[in-house]
Amino acid sequence: MSLHINANKGDIAETVLMPGDPLRAKYIAEHFLENARCYNEIRGMLGYTGTYKGVPVSVQGSGMGMPSMGIYSWELMTEYGVQNIIRIGTTGSFREDVKLKDIVVGMTASTDSNYIHNFDVPGNFAPCASYELLLKLQESAKDLNLTFKAGNIVSCDVFYELKEDWWKKWAAMGVMAVEMEAAALYMNAAYNNVKAIAIMTVSDHFVTGEKATAEERQNSFTDMMKLALETAVK
What we know:
By secondary structure, this protein is an alpha/beta fold. About 30% of the residues lie in helices and about 25% in strands. The model has no long low-confidence stretch (mean pLDDT about 95).
């Protein structure tokens, strides 16, 4: 067992889906996985393992923000031998053509965080997704007749930014959307030689002001969930 995950060796599959919301993990386990069983309830950060199309898959809540994602993804990689992590979360769009409920894939994750300081690199580091998982995701999207937008996203430490137009400077650099976890996940994966990719559904729109409800954020982003699951078993 690790400090934050109450599981034994072998309880967690080599491929893990990681929503920020632990209740989204519960929803996926109950609606998509067969023979799912809960292996973690510490701090309410629910984790489950079951099968999807006969393949073992786990789903583990990460919590909000890079510190929380950093803890849970690190323990999955270093304590439980996880080889593939697919983040499934929500994001805020910076572009008119990336609309509410669109699926966004973070090929790279810019950040305003100093999370990289832990790795003591002698310069800047560009956190990026696994190309292998990106190819599998693209194949899965075709199979499901789904579309997604892929590009640079930004992982930010602050949710309630005090400067109203802070996001426009990121948008001017071609950044599509903002979330709070992917950069830490990608850094942990790079250091531990693990594959990772972040898939998000647009829940907020900075240009139009549209917002999804709390219930929609938890339960209704099923296209993203199906896409992640199909990618997990490719």
